[in-house]
Amino acid sequence: MTQREVQQRRPSIHDVASHAGVSAATVSKVLAGVTTVRPENAQRVFDAVERLGYRVDPLASDMRRAKRRIIGAIMPEFESEFFGSMVTELEGLAEQRGYTLVAASSRESEAREKEILARMHDWRVAGVVLAPVRNEHGPAAAFMKANGMTGVLIDRVLSDDAFDTVSADSAAASAEVARMLVGNGHSHILVIGLAEQAATVRARLEGFRTQALALNPSVRIDVITSEVSVEPLRASLRDYFARGERPTAVYSLLLKGTLVALSEFRRRGWHCPNDISLVGFDDAEWMQVTWPAIAAVVQPVRQIASEAMNLLFRRVEGAMGPPTARLEPCQVLMRESVGSPGSGPHSGGGDRQQPPLS
Amino acid sequence: MTQREVQQRRPSIHDVASHAGVSAATVSKVLAGVTTVRPENAQRVFDAVERLGYRVDPLASDMRRAKRRIIGAIMPEFESEFFGSMVTELEGLAEQRGYTLVAASSRESEAREKEILARMHDWRVAGVVLAPVRNEHGPAAAFMKANGMTGVLIDRVLSDDAFDTVSADSAAASAEVARMLVGNGHSHILVIGLAEQAATVRARLEGFRTQALALNPSVRIDVITSEVSVEPLRASLRDYFARGERPTAVYSLLLKGTLVALSEFRRRGWHCPNDISLVGFDDAEWMQVTWPAIAAVVQPVRQIASEAMNLLFRRVEGAMGPPTARLEPCQVLMRESVGSPGSGPHSGGGDRQQPPLS
DNA sequence: CAAGAACGAAAAATCGATTTATCGATTAGA
DNA sequence: TCTAATCGATAAATCGATTTTTCGTTCTTG
């Protein structure tokens, strides 16, 4: 009966100690790799660990430790490929260093973001990777600052005076999109976006505008943005087209906008690239299999995740010095959704074109 | 100086106790809502909590407690909308009950799945929501059983003799797809899938086949599956078409397959639904904005998540009794990618059709 | 050979909570 | 009036590890 009860509950460090005939402190030292233990005793500890199938309880272990081996990750959402793979990467990197990642979605709400952060602070996480809803000046970053938390800000940020930041080089990528579109002869381009406040969205817009005007000073760039959600953006876009505006290309500053643009094109019976060209910031798996394939800016998820974790652990280990602001280069994928203006609906070369067989 | 140090480190229950002039045990009781405390003392505790900004340390709290308030979630991946929103839902539901969710991706590997599970067992999680890579008979479920862990299996499962299971009603949804396709006159249908071993994929196949044959005994159903990954599937599909096989409709049993099918259609210059019809299991946001919109089976993510958590917490709270196997109904969305066979490439009514304005 | 340094391991304190045992004061009952 | 029961609160034990302190041996060294 006692046998059974002992087997029910997981062995603790004391069980290992008594089986090995040493003290719990010695077991702890052996497992921590301290060398001042007699080899004979160390072997007995290893044997007991093996026999009992003992594993350290990370919760109890973190209890005594100054820095708990937990990393928090807060993303605006998990539904998109970008943040989904971001969490996957972060989790893998945390695990590699023996840390546990606790991830939560702020669901695009700054209020929720702060609540989650408070809860992570309760857990006394060693560090936080925060992808803020809006930008680096939100209440979440302020909370982290006020409570002396260590963290890294990613994605919708440019730079901060307290935290390291890592994001895609939006401006450079947008400049390349400008070269692609203006280079193809487009001189009336619509840019759509959400939350112009977000530093990166502004960077994308400015990067695009500057480069486009440099290449062709007479290019016309219309901008439609919405603060709140996608629906107002959809309404504005609908209005814009209904007024008779006919840009030859659309550059969407974010994935949701690309979807909105596509559905509005659908609604009006327009085809890419014959009737209008389209480029989107943020790539997704489906974009290369649809007809036409959608040109897109690919964000370097792995690099961002890896760099963020490197910076974070440097700070966790006590590194001082001014915060750094990293920009990771993007890749711009030219695809069939971009053509030259004026190749009209019946000029061929559009989505009816037969792709080469391998 | 001492002032500052005190402010550096977060207040513990003892700090609250001394500020309130009571013992730590009393503070604990007040915060737990025990009523045997003099109202006067309770008030002083609340005041001290307020003044110090005290919050319970969940790690220390869970230390003493028998059941730790941590739930583990293991998904095959985070990149897709389905598992992404699943994690979001699960996290919200866990939070509602005061639990912390620790999520990890098995990256479609059973070996990794088991390792993650072992690590969650180390944390002594109260329960686990496992979406197995293959099915309920994998090593992960065996590990949970062997170690007396409580958990719920979701998505790629049908039923189990040890754990409650929750999944989409694949068979019923597939039967509806069969009605849709056969009802539209299709008599040669290709079904593609991955990992036929997965119980749900088999259920989808059988649900489809049974209903299709019931409606038209002479319907021809070809099946292409691949065990390993998507690439062999793509190769087989390419072979199949190269041999001159010309089904009039394709039913993909999973999202990856839908993408593969679309890209193969592209490669051959085929259009939906003129040249071939397409229905996919699993919906995604982009499917309704592409041209044509892709008909799809929508899985009830919220219901699955909610039911899984209900069942899990029932077990966590000690409920006994035989495991249940829930099937949540899906919704089948008819879209433009499905048409009638024989309406040939030049018969109109396909992806060139002008959608109604409004 | 005795004092001191070095070494290895055990004992004890600690982390921050919860829970159980204990204790003093008040009230009830005999 | 004295004992027993009740009540509220405190002290102490506990969870499972890590870290610091203490202690007994052995090895140096003057």
UniProtKB/TrEMBL annotation, chains A, B:
<dbReference type="InterPro" id="IPR010982">
    <property type="entry name" value="Lambda_DNA-bd_dom_sf"/>
</dbReference>
<keyword id="KW-0238">DNA-binding</keyword>
<dbReference type="InterPro" id="IPR028082">
    <property type="entry name" value="Peripla_BP_I"/>
</dbReference>
<feature type="region of interest" description="Disordered">
    <location>
        <begin position="336"/>
        <end position="358"/>
    </location>
</feature>
<feature type="domain" description="HTH lacI-type">
    <location>
        <begin position="11"/>
        <end position="65"/>
    </location>
</feature>
<dbReference type="GO" id="GO:0003677">
    <property type="term" value="F:DNA binding"/>
</dbReference>
<dbReference type="InterPro" id="IPR000843">
    <property type="entry name" value="HTH_LacI"/>
</dbReference>
<dbReference type="Pfam" id="PF00356">
    <property type="entry name" value="LacI"/>
</dbReference>
<feature type="compositionally biased region" description="Gly residues">
    <location>
        <begin position="341"/>
        <end position="351"/>
    </location>
</feature>
<dbReference type="InterPro" id="IPR046335">
    <property type="entry name" value="LacI/GalR-like_sensor"/>
</dbReference>
<keyword id="KW-0804">Transcription</keyword>
<keyword id="KW-0678">Repressor</keyword>
<protein>
    <submittedName>
        <fullName>LacI family DNA-binding transcriptional regulator</fullName>
    </submittedName>
</protein>
<keyword id="KW-0805">Transcription regulation</keyword>
<dbReference type="Pfam" id="PF13377">
    <property type="entry name" value="Peripla_BP_3"/>
</dbReference>
